[in-house]
Amino acid sequence: MELESGATGAAGATSRREPADLAVEEPLEIRLDDTLVATTMRTPGHDFELAVGWCHAEGLLADHPVESVRYCATGGAVETAFNVVTVSTGGRAPTPSPRLGSTSTSCGLCGSTEIDSLLDRIGPLPAPPVFDPAVLGAAPAALRAAQPLFERTGAVHAAGAFDEAGRVVVAREDIGRHNAVDKVVGRLRLDDALPAHQLGLVVSGRASFEIVQKAWAAGFGTVVAVSAPSSLAVEVARRANMTLVGFARGSSLRVYAGEGLL
């Protein structure tokens, strides 16, 4: 893509002609043991992690290990343009029910799953570690340093898992913020590092209900967001026994849930 060069608008603004990197957005079909369970719009990259993380957050894997993850289902990887991923448990996971419709990059839940059933499925978390407020405030900046795609496009979100010292141990980017979280969770699941009780989750942008729900399912006891959470995200965080921090910007942050910091 190129931008118009040398034009001057009514307000005196000018533009330049220069190449621009654009964030790619393509559909991804997620299959569990060859059953189609979801279609999500995502930025290609770390697709196996995304598929595993999504299945984990939905409770589809239960306690069964992932035996393999591969591109393709009804055809080869090239035939399906690397846009179909199959997660296999060797048929051990319960037979999944497909999600109706597709998942957008801005909302993964889309009303297809009842909130109460999610709350019933995931029990309260054990008491999370109490992070130093300075670590929580610095978490977005630490994540920002691990966002090369954002540097090139300015159009993607990010999520990262960080330890008590503030070190980001896994960071992923995607045009959809919930996809970025799924990629982080998927990586941890494949590394047998869940539940992530001793880690925190930091996300660019706001903390929606779904971000908190995915963090809860993965066992994160602390979630940090650059912007504000939604009211439902705060309610769910409190019911989950989770620390939820918003507007984390250096020495300033706002605590919405979490007895250790309130």
Overview of the molecule:
The protein is of the alpha/beta class. The chain folds into 2 domains: 26-121, Ubiquitin-like (UB roll) (Roll), CATH 3.10.20; 133-257, Cytidine Deaminase, domain 2 (3-Layer(aba) Sandwich), CATH 3.40.140. The protein has helices at 47-57, 115-121, 133-144, 148-153, 177-190, 209-218, 231-240, and strands at residues 26-32, 35-42, 68-71, 84-88, 157-162, 168-174, 200-203, 222-225, 243-249, 252-257. It has a 6-stranded mixed beta sheet. The chain has a 4-stranded mixed beta sheet with strand order 2-1-4-3, with helices on one face. The N and C termini lie far apart (48 Å). Mean pLDDT is 85; it is low at 1-8 and 104-114.
